[in-house]
Design a protein that fits this description.
The structure is a homodimer.
Chain A lengths: L5 H17 L6 H8 L4 H7 L2 H23 L7 H18 L1 H10 L7 H26 L9 H25 L7 H25 L3
The first copy, chain A, binds a DNA duplex (30 and 30 nucleotides) through helix 3.
GO molecular function (chains A, B): DNA-binding transcription factor activity; transcription cis-regulatory region binding
Organism (chains A, B): Chitinophaga eiseniae
Keywords (chains A, B): DNA-binding, Transcription, Transcription regulation
DNA sequence: AGCAAAGTTAAACAAACGTTTAATTTAAAC
DNA sequence: GTTTAAATTAAACGTTTGTTTAACTTTGCT
């Protein structure tokens, strides 16, 4: 658990945005330095290398994700379906709230070559699966959820849908209702739409009710 | 509709694999030339530039996708749900059959900067949506499908799930049944698993039956 | 004030990048 | 067999890449 100076945070923030928008190899350290308004040498000075800068971004975000997971583990008073719905909403909020990082994840998980970053990704995904699995299993044993469900694939659908929505937002704007929207309103509109869709999907497949 | 020589096809094939595995900017023309066993200059000679090489790959694959779409449009004798199921299976087959290209699409659709390639992607996605939309609408009007369904989001789920499965295959191998599998058997196993999952999901949400 | 460490800078580094050149070989046409 | 165009090559092109250097400034401590 390290702390970062303002300047370091500025670099991390700019780098995250540029890596998301143009890819890791599509972004030069000079681009980052210029937009963050620091000297090029500071990136190596602070983070060691461009690779380690990416790794730092990952560890930074993943630490937050771990906390996020642990918080979710504490909700014990809810009904199974309420738990699932809460989980869906929290996932949507989390992932759409850090879209730049999610873009980087989308990209990096495609790399065929093994790397520390790729390992971190699948480690985290495993933990997320471990979050939903027991809820479903428990509800299945209690006879509340239907037995014949592939939870791993359901998690894949959850991730996949949200990851697909992130770059699709340009398009969703066109099919949105004609009412004028500022950025915040549109963000809420998207969240609501994904949330409604995923909750319906999960409820239907898990409980066979509507 | 152009034709390509063997050497050109060799370059396209190698480039597609490398772009998928390491990203566009992560792959050098020297890498491509070496693996395709041609001189570096041939790439500029044939395709003009590295950018146009990527664009060529896209146009090549997209032409096939267009044909694919037109074939799907001709199935008129089936029941609505059969049509959907057939569509799901064909999508899975298509996309898992060209995984390298789908990886490139996954990456390129994240680019924030406008480009010919990005336009092509969303154009194609629109066409795919236009493929499912009328089937659903027609069945809704006939009272066979439930009214309250967000087809655009459903299509997002379809794409998202499959796009998420492609890089997740390493992991799926671990949770696969212990029976020994060669590559072809595993590929079939994955297809079957995704297919079963998606069909259940679509049937539940569209018909409210199981 | 004086000193040591940390922070910051412009400049330079070698390596890798995409692309082009000019020379040579191959193939096809007459 | 000669000619013309296409294919292929090794080498060089000028940039850009990530990283390092060495000089300089700021900061914090005694």
């Amino acid at each position: 658990m390290e702390e970062y100076s303002e300047k370091q945070l500025a670099i991390l923030k700019v780098a995250e945005r540029l890596f998301a928008d143009q890819g890791f190899h599509g972004t030069s350290v000079r681009d980052i330095a210029q937009e963050a308004d620091v000297n090029i040498a500071m990136i190596s000075y602070y983070f060691g290398s461009k690779d380690k800068l990416l790794e730092t971004i990952f560890r930074y975000r993943m630490e937050a994700s771990r906390k996020f997971i642990n918080e979710l583990l504490e909700n014990n008073t809810m009904e199974p379906l309420e738990k699932i719905n809460s989980l869906i909403d929290r996932f949507i909020n989390k992932m759409l709230g850090e879209q730049y990082f999610q873009c980087i994840m989308s990209r990096e998980q495609l790399n065929s070559q093994a790397s520390p970053v790729r390992d971190l990704i699948w480690e985290l995904k495993g933990e997320m699966l471990g979050l939903m699995q027991p809820i479903v299993t428990q509800a299945q044993e209690a006879g509340i959820f239907y037995k014949d469900v592939d939870v791993e694939m359901l998690m894949t659908t959850l991730f996949g849908t949200i990851h697909q929505v992130i770059p699709a937002q340009h398009i969703l704007k066109k099919s949105a209702p004609a009412t004028v929207m500022n950025d915040d309103e549109f963000r809420e509109y998207v969240k609501k739409r994904v949330s409604t869709h995923l909750k319906k999907l999960f409820k239907a497949i898990l409980t066979h009710e509507f």
